[in-house]
Amino acid sequence: QVQLVESGGGSVQAGESLTLSCVVSGYTKNRYCMAWFRQAPGKGLEWIASISNFGGQTTYADSVKGRFTISRDNAKNTLYLQLNSLETEDSAMYYCTRPRGTWPYSDPHAYTLKGQGTQVTVSS
């Protein structure tokens, strides 16, 4: 059974950085496109970024473009999200997903797998 496990969240000051990781465990022979979403309290899931199955293509939401970087290491079965220049508005639970549908996989309801999330809190 394939599972996604996120880690790396924490509490930081505005302007600081964090690196989130998402380890894919279980049957991992096939390589899939992956995506990051986040959910702030009282709000719905917001798509952040997607990456193609071998990492050659990435795309970002306008709200994080230029500040966040999605990457993957298929040899380690791990997806990453580098968060730079964090803002208080970035505070949320961050989830990695194996999305369904078509590129850029920004539909927050279309995924076959979703992790349990890792919390990012940014204070001013």
Low-confidence region ranges: none
For the sheet with most strands, the description reads: 7 strands, mixed
| Derived structural class | mainly beta
How many strands in all? 11
- Rg over CA atoms, rounded to whole Å, is 13 Å
> What letter string, H or E per element, gives the SSE order?
EEEEEEEEEEE
> Roughly how many Å apart are the termini?
41 Å
Shape category: globular
Mean pLDDT: 95
Number of helices: 0
Q: Give the fraction of residues assigned to helices.
A: under 10%
Strand content: over 45%
General description of the model:
This protein is mainly β and 124 residues long. The protein is 0% helix and 50% strand. It contains no helices and 11 strands. Strands 2, 4, 5, 6, 9, 10 and 11 form a 7-stranded mixed beta sheet that branches. A hairpin with a 6-residue loop joins β5 and β6. The protein is globular. The termini are far apart. The mean pLDDT is 95.
Features:
mainly beta; seven-stranded mixed beta sheet
Please write out the topology.
Elements lengths: L2 E5 L2 E4 L4 E8 L8 E6 L6 E6 L6 E3 L7 E6 L4 E6 L8 E8 L11 E4 L3 E6 L1
Parallel strand pairs: 2-11
Antiparallel strand pairs: 1-3, 3-8, 4-5, 4-9, 5-6, 7-8, 9-10, 9-11
Brief overview:
The protein has strands spanning 3-7, 10-13, 18-25, 34-39, 46-51, 58-60, 68-73, 78-83, 92-99, 111-114, 118-123.
